[in-house]
Design brief:
By secondary structure, the protein is α+β, with helices and mostly antiparallel strands. The chain has helices at 3-6, 37-47, 67-75, 85-88, 102-112, and strands spanning 25-26, 30-32, 51-55, 61-66, 116-120, 126-131.
Length: 134
């Protein structure tokens, strides 16, 4: 018997689906939902970011806004300098959890035409952002 024949055969590895935790970016700037659109835009320019995570007074993530969304609000005829971020958020979410698979997250983002998706823990605190590469 040769040495090759004595080597145990490797068991077939079952691929483990990648989760959003494997590819998410750090959460980045998080702001309170009472911030005005104009201040949020200034912050985004200063931080050189394309999106902000919005949190409520309890620190729970309520959504995400992009620079393009804020610019569209500012340029609309209904704009006033009193409009706060909470006024422009549609609903709470959508969000991904750390155990959401990449396939599920990509499907959800494509269906909703999202460029970025907040990743939150079971309590609603922001952990990071899943963003499509540009």
């Amino acid at each position: 018997m040769t040495l090759d024949q004595m080597q145990p055969r490797p068991a077939r590895a079952i691929p483990v689906p990648r989760t959003v935790t494997d590819t998410m970016e750090p959460a980045g700037p998080q702001v309170c939902d009472d911030m005005t659109v104009e201040v949020a835009l200034s912050l985004m320019v200063g931080a050189r970011t394309e999106h902000l995570l919005i949190c409520d007074n309890d620190g729970l993530c309520t959504g995400l806004v992009t620079q393009a969304q804020l610019t569209a609000v500012r340029d609309s005829s209904a704009y006033t300098d009193r409009i706060q971020l909470r006024d422009i958020l549609d609903d709470r979410g959508p969000f991904a959890s750390p155990v959401t698979t990449m396939a599920e997250a990509e499907h959800s983002m494509r269906d909703r035409s999202l460029a970025a998706l907040p990743v939150v823990d079971e309590y609603g605190s922001a952990l990071g952002i899943l963003a499509f590469a540009r």
